[in-house]
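User: Please check token order:
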Amino acid sequence: MTTQPDHGHELIPRPERTPDAVRVALAVVHSTSSREDPAFRPAMDELRAVEADAERAVSA
């Protein structure tokens, strides 16, 4: 959670920016028509890799 400027000390929930790799992978997954689409598997692999990196960063 971060604070928005000009709101004093009040915390206003604001989601963190989505990493570019996640946005790209989600766009590819969304544009596929099914799991059999050749682009689906690589995009899911990229999402899993980003998720694993995030878990390592949080637990470090």
